[in-house]
Design a protein that fits this description.
Layout lengths: L6 E2 L13 H10 L4 E2 L10 H11 L2 E2 L2 E8 L2 E8 L6 H11 L2 H14 L5 H6 L10 H10 L6 H9 L14 H10 L3 E4 L9 H13 L4 E6 L4 H13 L3 E5 L41
Parallel strand pairs: 1-2, 2-3, 6-7, 7-8
Antiparallel strand pairs: 4-5, 5-6
Helix pairs in contact: 1-2, 6-7
This protein binds adenosine monophosphate (AMP) and manganese (II) ion (MN) (3 copies).
The site of one manganese (II) ion has 5 residues, from loops.
Amino acid sequence: MTPTLNADLHCHSVISDGTLTPEELAQRAKDKGVDLWALTDHDEVGGQARAMAAAEAVGLDYLTGVEISVSFLEQTVHIVGLGFDASNEPLRQGLQRTRGGRAQRAHEMANGLALVGIKGAFEGALTYAGNRDLISRTHFARFLVETGVCKDTYEVFRKYLTEGKPGYVPHRWATLKEAVSWIRDAGGLAVVAHPARYKFSANEEFALFTEFKGLGGQGVEVVTGSHSAAESVTYADVAREFDLAASRGSDFHCPQESRTELGNLPPLPAQLTPVWALLQDRIQRAPARP
Ligand code: AMP
Ligand code: MN
Ligand code: MN
Ligand code: MN
């Protein structure tokens, strides 16, 4: 196993809340020196065939990917799936159900924003959604930046889209058990995404990893665009404690918004098993170049 492999196993396209197409992402990943790539759109595998074809065309090794929204102890947790069969019907149907409430939620978010004087947010957000089935808070954030309500998307989330703020609507997503089973039953490996982002107590976080592991989850993101260097050290310890493989991904969404560029991440800390070591037979290999 090459310890220095530049794997980027977390990013988003226009199929969810990114701004680039799967083809543009594949080219960009190649240009930025990525060796192994996965597109992980939220609750949707509709971009996988395009991403696989584009990866092959530019000469990138590829793993199928998805990022599933899960409700766990009153918070939203994201579970990344890697290396599954994207045509698996139970997975596709589970994701469709998970997406199902997004339109209604978006109307409620717009109603909340209207109450504080921000009009037309549903229609505004929709113009940013490449996939009408997947309207997300990110699309509202882009609308509020474009209309000058806030200077950037981080300010929008802080003032309008997080718990207790006018545009925040609690939502019930998939259960942890559903997400892990859909991924596993489709032949893939489940990964806890950006664990430092959650606001769990130590006991709650222990419960998350214990239940995840008990359900057959096998990985945790250690190096991600969402983690500081210190947080990566913390979750390297968690990976060892729970005997989980380690993943690495930028969580890239948009050239203007994302803090981390595709492939531009520190290496995984030593002595961890990279998730790709467990997925060797699931990697779509780029054809050898003459
Ligand atoms: P949703 O799935 O509709 O709840 O939207 C979640 C998405 O919003 C995440 O995947 C991120 O892309 C983005 N997001 C969530 N929280 C923040 C934040 N505090 N700042 C910036 N973007 C955020
Ligand atoms: Mn996102
Ligand atoms: Mn996420
Ligand atoms: Mn993500």
